[in-house]
Every structure is written in structure tokens, then in C-alpha cells.
Amino acid sequence: MFSAFPQLPLELREEIWRYCLPYRVRELDRSEYDLYEVEGESEIPCWLHHITSMNTRPPAIWSVCHEARRVAQETGRVSDPFSLRPADSKWYSYLQIHDRWEDSQRDSVHMNWPAMTTYDDDGYGMPLRALSFDALRLSGKASIMFTFLHSCLKPDPGEKVAIFAHPPSPGGCYPHEDGMAHLRVYRRAMLSDTRALRHLDNWSVVMKTVVIHQDIRIAAMTGLFGLLGDALVQIVDVDEVERMADLLRLARNCEQGFNVTARQDFEPLNLQEVNEAVKQTLIERGYGDMVPKVRPAVLFRLCPRMCNRLGRAVTPPPRPIGMGRGFVSFWLDNPKARR
Ligand SMILES: [Zn+2]
Ligand SMILES: [Zn+2]
């Protein structure tokens, strides 16, 4: 900040702080695919749950001074979305996130859960209702994985999709039903849950995930992760051509010159192919009317931990404050780490 900042009128200072607030993607749950891998031994590009837990923190300006914190708290707070949802929109998953920061004006919500039915012992309830309920409390925008959309049940010809259904309880089961009755009630609930697609006018469907391994301060300078680099997760729709190209280029540059455990695919999505896939999936489930409101997207995650570098033995210790401000500085510059 420049030195005249404190002399600006309060209203102007607050306006500047507001301008620094990030537009973030609030995650309902952690990604599951990396949980069973042993860090340092397996060939996956990133341990995504590190990013997800960093992504629950308050925005950067919250830690600057009391004035900035007050501005962040005008629209932001820590909340547990699980406890705020009404009974007909409950969803439980063993990967769900409880306390997290959220901004009621700026943030969208995202569910990493990969399929509607596969994990019935680890997740139960009404996932889409939960997601859309959360979205409506915030900016009204939500995103899901394509695998999830594709796993939503299709109604048989003539089958009614109930407006209301009791959410399934643990294990996807209804304790008082058995055999075929149990399956019927479960199917009724899961079909009914798909109706929540109509609760929002703005959906993104994640066709692929790309991880960018980079120092947060360097990434912040690109402006692609919020003004201060505190929006670590970005969901970019296929029609945001420029931002998509910038992020893919950054991702490629951050991986190309290094020996990594797993190479990622940085090719842009085939527009026609993904549009068609999303459209078909919606039509087959009776949501042809939603086609213009649902867009294919890519999920970008900024990870400062360099999970994918071969030979990375330890997590680098934090740099002393004031060193390498915004520029490359090797962690060996930390005098404590030198020996
Ligand atoms: Zn990583
Ligand atoms: Zn069951």
C-alpha cells in the first residue's frame, strides 16, 4: 500500500478494501481420489485436499488490520453449511467440510462428490438440494462434476419425478423398508433430488481438473487467482475464452520444465464435444429446458506445495517475512534451512 493510504477518506479506504475481496469457490466436500494414496509414493499430480483446506480460510485482507477485517466481515463469516440446511435439503458425506469462510455476495459453491449413487454408505441425503440451497444463500452460482451429473438417475418412460421425497438416511437406506420397497424409496428420493437443478439459473459442470503448482505470491501477480492470490480454486466456463487460455498457459509453464510425478493434460476442451455431452445428459434426464443454463467448465486449483516434483523430500519451511517479496526465492535462502 502506498503511504498516503491512511489519509484517504474512510469511505474510499473501505471501497479499496472491498475491491480486494476475492470471488471464491466454496467447496462442500474434499476430493476423494487422493485420500488413499501415500504422499511421495504415488503418481498423481496433486494431493488436492491441501488446497481444499487452505480454501476454507478467510480472505487475505482479513489478516491485514481491523479496518480491513471489518470490511471482510460486512459480507463474510465462518459458517457450517451442514447445520444451516433445512431437513429436506440435508446431505451428509464423510468428506464434507464443516467450518469455512464464506462471502454471501461473491462466492459460488462447488461439490466435488463424483457420483450420485456409487458411495451410498459414505454419503447420503439430497446432494443437489443441499448444493442449491447453499448457492442461494451466496451468489446463486453452483458447480458439479460431470461424472456426478452423468450419474443422476434417468426416469423411466411415464415415471413421475416426485416434488417431495424423504431424504435417505445412513447408507442410502430407509430403516423401515426392506427389499424392493427400500430400492423404490431410494430411487424416488434420488430422482426427486435432480429437480434441484431447476433451483438455479447458473450451473457449471466440471469436465476436467487442472492443478497449477506455483508459489502463491507469484501466482497472485498473474491476477488469475484474485487480486491477492486468495482465490485458490477457479471454475472457468468454456465461453470465458481468454481466462481459460491464460490459466492453461500458466499451468503448462508451471509443469513443463520440471521432472514431475505425473503429467497433466493442458489441451483446451473440445467445445462441441463437451457442449454435446452436457446437453445429452440433461435431455436424457428430462432437463432439456436447463441446457442454456448449464455450461461445461474446467476446475483450476492453485497448489503451493509442489506435490508433483520428483525428489521433493520435505515440505519447504515458511520463508521469513520480507524475503523474496513476490519474486522467486529458493527456500534454501531461509538461514534456518541452510544446514
Ligand atoms: Zn499440489
Ligand atoms: Zn442401502
Automatic annotation (TrEMBL):
A Pfam family recorded for this sequence: 2EXR
Official protein name in the record: 2EXR domain-containing protein
InterPro entries: 2EXR
UniProt domain 2EXR: residue ranges: 2-77
